[in-house]
Amino acid sequence: MSIKAVGRFIHRGCDANDGLLIGAAFHGNPFKPNTVYEVVDVLGQLTVREIGQSAILNMNEPRKSALASTWGSSIDELLVHRGATLVLTREEYAQVLYQRHREVLIKEYGAPQVSVWELQGKDLNDIQF
Length: 129
Fold this sequence. Notes:
Distance between the termini: 59 Å
Number of helices: 3
Number of strands: 4
Helix content: 25-40%
Number of domains: 1
Low-confidence stretches: none
Shape: elongated
């Protein structure tokens, strides 16, 4: 069994709350484009596993939301605008956006009305304010 490095990353680690990792994959790496990976600790051994498709859109994909980001943005823009949501899968980011929209609807219409809509099975994303 041979060990082949497929990439590297660094952890900035400015303080205990700093979670910034910056990395690069080497030529011929096994990583899929526009895919989120997770590093997990398995009995003290760090392992990388595939999680799902990135919430960041390819440049040719249509934006369904003004909050959508594309790889046409600079890394600075992505870090500032997306922050911690930068590493979410599409499904995870959709949940974040749903919760944000729900919170705005509660402020606008009140929690009782939002609860009624949810009991009726309405998709809150379809309700405008």
